[in-house]
Amino acid sequence: MHTASKAFICNSGSEANEAAIKFARKVGKTRTPSGSQHEIVSFDGSFHGRTMGALSATPNPKYQKPFSPMVPGFKYGTFNDEASINALVNEKTCGVIIEPIQGEGGINVATSSFLQALRDRCNEVGAVLIYDEIQCGLGRTGRLWAHQFLPQSAHPDILTTAKALGNGFPIGATVVNEDVAKCVVTGDHGTTFGGNPLACRLAHYILSRLSDPELQSSVREKEKLFRRHFARLQEKYPRHVKEIRGRGLILGLQLTNDPTPIVTAARERGLLIITCGKNTLRFVPPLVISTEEIEEGFAILAEAIEVAFRESQAIEGTKGQQEMAPAGR
Question: What's the mean pLDDT in 179-190?
Fold first, then answer.
């Protein structure tokens, strides 16, 4: 985000997105005092948090239904559908929030042309573009930020981050450019514990580590190893392994059937893996994972897949793994 100017420090990713939504609303109210420019656009498959504003931007019935009705003023679009952008983002839109790589939704990578088209349309209608990099940012893709693979013309007005920022300690951040910052005044937003000395000192150190070019380069090299193993699995099980998605060390293996038996078999053999989206195995290992650990993990995974495909009816499923699958599926 080459235009970054200021940051609001909070305690979590959901809080960071709540701040981003509020800031987008404030920009809309500043530009259009009547309040007509107030809508927030997000996309199917997204996950932005569990507090009410962030939840309203997360169009999944599994999460929304127990707490409905949602906050009004949210619209949902189809991820990577460029043709729908002009109708979706209009003069009523104050902000668009999107993950450059959807995590919980299935490791879906936004195309460069889609993000550029969103950026261009936001410029046309005066809307704020928000990149949620809470899961895909901070070195996860082999660059500090996932959107660094894009030209500067597609960079956001607001960037949200958390998770890796504290390496297990609670901290989040909402980074804004000057156009957004000048619309937000003292008293518009606040936090009790955000910006406390301990969290900020930790984040300062962790950010210095994650900014290391050698670490980022190693992530890109490890991605190659993961993809080689994925390709072997796809070659061995062409009917079951449909697609390989992701970038760096946020990767997904799309299967044709429910991967719960694989998750169960892998856990029984000492490997913890999780799912996302629909029928997708998610791989988000530590950035410092070693080659030896990768090889060991794939040896276990290969055995688990073989057992699961052979004995899927005999393996008891693990409830709660398909986190993003809509209720009833």
Answer: 95
Terminal-to-terminal C-alpha distance of the chain: 38
Q: Burial-class residue 126 by CB neighbours within 10 Å (0-12, 13-18, 19+).
A: middle
Burial class (CB in 10 A: 0-12, 13-18, 19+), 62: middle
| Residue 30: partners with Cβ closer than 8 Å, 6 or more residues away | 183
Helix (H, G, I), strand (E, B) or coil at 268: helix
227-266: buried (b, 16+ CB within 10 Å) or exposed (e) per residue? eebbeebbeeeeebbbebbbbbbbbbbbbeebbbbbbbbb
Contact residues for 49 (Cβ-Cβ < 8 A; gap 6+) = 12, 13, 14, 15, 17, 18, 55, 57, 58
> Element (H or E) spanning 201, and its range?
helix 197-210
Decide if pLDDT at 103 tops 70. yes
DSSP letter at 65?
G
The model scores a pTM over 0.70: yes
| Torsion (CA) 282, 276, 143, 110 in degrees, nearest 10 | 130
What mean pLDDT is predicted for residues 188-213? 96
Residue 319 pLDDT > 80: no
**Residue listed under structure tokens 């697609």:** 243
User: Strand, coil or helix: what is 223?
Assistant: helix
249, two tokens: 């060390």
| Bridge partner list, 74 | 40
Q: Is the pLDDT of residue 327 over 60?
A: no
